[in-house]
């Protein structure tokens, strides 16, 4: 038997959490409830701050309880639309939240991939801020996230791609996101994030090294494609083997980089 406790603020939910699990949209937590594997207590917060979006300027804040459908309803968040649109079907997108996506197990976490490439920071309930790429590793005992902050990318500097066997709503064989800002003809501040290439979304040090400080040309793209899976050990599951993921990651990264270089992303 699982008991659900709903608190008016995130601070109160944080105090009540203890050994309970936090539930946001519940698209994953409710599966555990149905399977009888959920903890006896689930904690929720009805805090309006959780569903607030501030996206007027270049500094963007998404409450952790913002859903994929809410993101898709905001034209000023268009750079996140491809990632949000590729998450589940319409019913899932109506419930699935930003915060839940950070801790969704492999092969999920498509939006988290985009947030990592964008250099997102997680604002924690009463415990400061941390880079998204760090907190996604904390699946066992996730810190309670209040919101995510990201900087709006310059037009044409950011792209996301998802490779799935079932379109439009299959889970990821692979997800990729690239932030490729340019200073003149040189790439500066490149971030390449990958989903389904490890236990959690992560950055590709090999691809970033191949691109950073170089002209955005065919040679740099080919080098990034060769190095993208360097040091990574992708999981094998019913969608793809780890070997296959390693083999195709470079092809898809090269396509995404070419589309950014040509201004088509
Ligand atoms: C049919 C189906 C299809 C799906 N397709 C996709 C897909 O294509 N891509 C994809 O990425 N995901 C997919 N998912 C997984 C899931 O729906 C999403 O990842 C979603 O964003 C999870 O959010 P949620 O609010 O439902 O999380 P919940 O189920 O509420 O929680 C998931 C986990 O996150 C933790 N959590 C939630 N919010 C917070 C917070 N604010 N702070 C700390 N911890 C928190 C919970 O404690 C729990 O451990 C799919 C799920 C289903 C059932």
Can you describe what's shown?
This protein is of the alpha+beta class and 265 residues long. The chain has 2 domains: 3-151, Uridine Diphospho-n-acetylenolpyruvylglucosamine Reductase, domain 3 (2-Layer Sandwich), CATH 3.30.465; 158-261, Enolase-like, domain 1. The chain contains 11 helices and 14 strands. Helix 9 packs antiparallel against helix 10 (218-227) and helix 10 packs antiparallel against helix 11. The site of flavin-adenine dinucleotide has 28 residues, from strand 2, helix 5 and helix 6.
**What is the CA-CA span between the terminal residues?**
48 Å
Instruction: Report the uncertain regions.
Output: none
- CATH class type of the largest domain: Alpha Beta
- Please tell me the overall pLDDT: 96
Helix content: 25-40%
Ligand species: flavin-adenine dinucleotide
Q: Identify the CATH architecture of the largest domain.
A: 2-Layer Sandwich
- How much of the sequence lies in strands comes to 15-25%
How does the helix and strand content classify structurally? alpha+beta
Count of discrete alpha- or pi-helical segments spanning 4 or more residues: 11
Stated plainly, the CATH topology of the largest domain is called Uridine Diphospho-n-acetylenolpyruvylglucosamine Reductase, domain 3
The number of strands is: 14
Sheet with most strands: 5 strands, antiparallel
Task: From the alpha carbons, calculate the radius of gyration and give it in angstroms.
Answer: 18 Å
Shape: globular
Strand order, sheet with most strands: 4-5-8-6-7
Task: Estimate nothing, just give the exact number of structural domains.
Answer: 2
**SSE pattern, N- to C-terminal:** EHEHEEEHHHHHEEHEEEEEEEHHH
């Amino acid at each position: 038997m699982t008991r659900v406790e709903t608190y008016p603020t995130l601070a109160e939910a944080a105090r009540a959490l203890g050994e309970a699990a936090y539930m946001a949209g519940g698209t994953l937590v409710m599966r555990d409830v149905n399977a009888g594997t959920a903890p006896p207590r689930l904690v929720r917060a009805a805090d309006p701050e959780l569903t607030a979006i501030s996206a007027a300027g270049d500094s963007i804040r998404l409450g952790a309880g913002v859903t994929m459908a809410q993101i898709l309803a905001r034209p000023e968040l268009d750079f996140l639309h491809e990632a949000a649109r590729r998450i589940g079907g319409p019913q899932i997108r109506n419930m699935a939240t930003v915060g839940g996506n950070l801790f969704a197990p492999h092969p999920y976490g498509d939006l988290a991939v985009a947030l990592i490439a964008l250099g997102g920071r997680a604002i924690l309930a009463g415990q400061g801020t941390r880079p998204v790429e760090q907190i996604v590793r904390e699946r066992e005992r996730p810190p309670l996230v209040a919101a995510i902050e990201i900087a709006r990318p310059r037009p044409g500097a950011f792209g996301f791609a998802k490779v799935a066997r079932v379109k439009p709503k299959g889970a990821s064989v692979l997800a990729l996101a690239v932030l490729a800002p340019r200073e003149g003809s040189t790439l500066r501040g490149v971030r390449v994030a990958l989903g389904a290439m490890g236990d959690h979304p992560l950055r590709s040090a090999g691809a970033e090294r191949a691109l950073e400080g170089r002209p955005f040309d065919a040679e740099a793209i080919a080098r990034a494609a060769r190095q993208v899976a360097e040091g990574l050990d992708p999981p094998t599951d019913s969608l793809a083997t780890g070997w296959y993921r390693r083999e195709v990651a470079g092809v898809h990264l090269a396509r995404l980089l070419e589309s950014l270089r040509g201004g088509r992303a």
